[in-house]
Amino acid sequence: MPFELTILGSGSATPTPERYPSAQFLVFGDHHILIDCGEGAQVQMMRYGVKMFRLDLVFISHLHPDHFLGLPGLISSLSLKGRKEPLDIYSPRGLQEILEVQFLFGEVHLSYELRFHVFNDSNESIELDDKYLTAYSFALSHRVACRGFVFKEKKPSRKIKKDLPDASKLPPEAYPVLRHGKDYIDPDGKTWLQEDYTIPNEPPFVYAYITDTLYMPKLASRFADLEISTLYHEATFMNDLKEKAVTTCHSTAKEAAEFAVKCKAQRLLIGHFSSRYKDLEPLLNEAKEIFPNTFLAVDGEKFGA
Amino acid sequence: MPFELTILGSGSATPTPERYPSAQFLVFGDHHILIDCGEGAQVQMMRYGVKMFRLDLVFISHLHPDHFLGLPGLISSLSLKGRKEPLDIYSPRGLQEILEVQFLFGEVHLSYELRFHVFNDSNESIELDDKYLTAYSFALSHRVACRGFVFKEKKPSRKIKKDLPDASKLPPEAYPVLRHGKDYIDPDGKTWLQEDYTIPNEPPFVYAYITDTLYMPKLASRFADLEISTLYHEATFMNDLKEKAVTTCHSTAKEAAEFAVKCKAQRLLIGHFSSRYKDLEPLLNEAKEIFPNTFLAVDGEKFGA
């Protein structure tokens, strides 16, 4: 399954020409997902060559301005291009009201439907479950209601062995059954044992997105069984500003790395950097000391599986 | 009086990385004025080095997304920087509602006051009149209520002659009186004739901003006495797409130039270019054939008096 993450914005509340506010474009299987949509995201999409017209899902973590202000313009531009397919938007309560009042006074009539899905207040909930992925949202700890996301690849537990001596005899109908760990009985009554024809599949790809939150070690422990392939965790400050991080309900680079260790992630991306940091290497080094496989998720960077 | 206009965006409905949506920053006397505020305007301000923290007046022509979507983020950033001075915003009805619902759901509490001034429906009205300037708004012809603006320098009609033989004897109190074309009688009863001490002043600087409108020749004729120093007129299309301009209620480069001729402007700036034009020289040439003193108002350009 293809996985490609493009960072559209790595700044925090105050954007700069080098660091736009939070936005990521995620190609996950057949889905084209926008995670947060800070001001300027549509221009960043053009700049970094993502397939913005294939966008089908939008997830907004919370309603602070730096996480959604790019959405009205993007929605409007897609309409000007004549989009017909509906767009599914997952967000906290209020986004629909915000958009509707803008379109009302601006007399904007969209060429396609917006389907709003409002997060509930549960600790964790499944937002979407289809043949490609399962998307969860979960509560974070910020100054306003804010949720993180997990996107987990939908994948059969077994895969067909390569170079089977009688592979050509295996009926096509048997493949999906065997891949899901079940034996296949053909129309003649013959049983094809999954054990003979399959081996365990690689684990599904899991992407977790955690922004605008105090460090949550208990959440990290709860995620230890999730087998997170790539974790994005905000790192607004360095640890010498830990106190400021606590006051503003943000995390430090050190804490992002500690989260990655605790939840046993394979790779860590850090972002949402305060505009005070011109050079990001110190933040990267602070995280790498604890979790070596850390990368800076700066504007324009792309990450594969 | 200083006059400096910085173009922050010269695009139209669909922005591109090269052309952001409409926004201009105007230093006019002691005022720092933002005219329209498309998405990304605050980052453009940083990019082009304007004094965004001295901003005191905002004029929004209409509520199509490409003319105001940058405002919530800018307002929020100024608050994060601890602004205390109130900000005066002149706009059509609806902008206050749009901003308030965003700040409500995002739980954004500003550090300063927004003072909203809503345009009335009159053909023309004075929005602001202080010791530096008079600002008018006037009705344009677009798909939604849209207004253009005139900013006219407040300037005495006369100025004191240089190298007067008895200039040193002129009482300081006489200056403002004579500058306004009146004779001054000093405490001893002596009359200082304005004719002896003054000559006519240069005409006041006048900046006119006209965006998102059908070509309005009658308005241009009405403006012929205004002595417009610099006219900004939208030129979304070239004249071969005149029909499309009419359908979408926009103007062509040729029409912008015809407006400049009719209203006897000294200089014409054209902008709000459709994203279909990669090269803008043909639009410039089309306008220059009719009005030679035309310039492209592209992102980052600065124009003095």
Description of the structure:
The structure is a homodimer of 305-residue chains. The first copy, chain A, is α/β, with parallel strands linked by helices. The first copy, chain A, has two domains: 3-155 and 202-303, 4-Layer Sandwich (Metallo-beta-lactamase, Chain A); 158-198, no CATH class. Chain A contains nine helices and 18 strands. The first copy, chain A, has helices spanning 41-47, 71-80, 95-105, 174-179, 194-197, 217-222, 242-247, 253-262, 281-288, and strands spanning 3-9, 23-28, 31-37, 57-59, 87-91, 114-118, 124-129, 133-139, 147-153, 158-160, 184-185, 191-192, 198-200, 206-210, 230-234, 267-271, 294-296, 302-303. In chain A, the strands form four sheets. In chain A, strands 6-5-4-3-2-1-18 form a seven-stranded mixed beta sheet. Chain A has a seven-stranded mixed beta sheet with strand order 7-8-9-14-15-16-17, covered by helices on one side. In chain A, strands 10-13 form a two-stranded antiparallel sheet. The longest helix of chain A is centred in the first third of the chain and has 11 residues, at 95-105. Chain A is globular and about 70 Å long. The model of chain A has no long low-confidence stretch (mean pLDDT 95). At the A-B interface, α1, α2 and α3 of A face α1, α2 and α3 of B.
